[in-house]
Amino acid sequence: MHGSSKSRTEAVPHDPEKPPSRMEAYRSPITAGINLFSGAVGGGFAVLLCQPLDTIKVKMQTYPQLYSGAYNCGVLTWKRQGIRGLYAGTVPSLTANILENASLFMFYGFCQKVVQSVLNVPRAEDLTTFHNACAGGGAAFFTSFFLCPTEL
């Protein structure tokens, strides 16, 4: 490709001494996609790793007289139903967790950019804990719109 035109998805270079303009701060579809994908993968693995423990917890709460403890519940479930017994009910949890974590990661990156822009902070690394907490609160606010239908 020749010429000096840049595609919309390329990073916009800026002077490190000068904070990026408000438009530069929001223009990062690749970063948003990476954050979205990272959150989805993390949310998926969290469910896949923790679902057997959640299943054991629910079985022990529902049928306390059948099990002497968590280990006993896990062993009996494995013997009776195999891996399917430990992963019962995974699809709804997987769907909700992937949606929640993907949107949280994406909106957190976006909200960090908004906080940076409002405060004229050139890099996310320069934000204080309070500023990052504000970005996290904003991410949770936006995520609640995606998560509420799955919780009902």
Automatic annotation (TrEMBL):
The residues bearing each Solcar repeat, given as ranges, are 30-114
The terms under GO molecular function for this entry are: L-ornithine transmembrane transporter activity
| InterPro entries registered for this protein in UniProt | MCP_dom_sf (IPR023395), MCP_transmembrane (IPR018108), Mitochondrial_Carrier (IPR050567)
One GO cellular component term, please give it.
mitochondrial membrane
Q: What is the superkingdom listed in this entry's lineage?
A: Eukaryota
**Which UniProt keywords are present, listed alphabetically?**
Membrane, Mitochondrion, Repeat, Transmembrane, Transmembrane helix, Transport
Question: What is an annotated GO biological process for this record, any one?
Answer: mitochondrial L-ornithine transmembrane transport
Q: What is its main location?
A: mitochondrion
Transmembrane regions listed in the UniProt entry: 30-50
Q: According to the UniProt record, where is the region Disordered?
A: 1-24
Entry's localization field: Mitochondrion membrane
Q: Which Pfam families does the UniProt entry name for this protein? A: Mito_carr
The residue ranges flagged as biased composition, category Basic and acidic residues, are 7-24
Q: Topologically, how does it sit relative to the membrane?
A: Multi-pass membrane protein
Q: Which family does it belong to?
A: Belongs to the mitochondrial carrier (TC 2.A.29) family.
This chain's protein is named: Uncharacterized protein
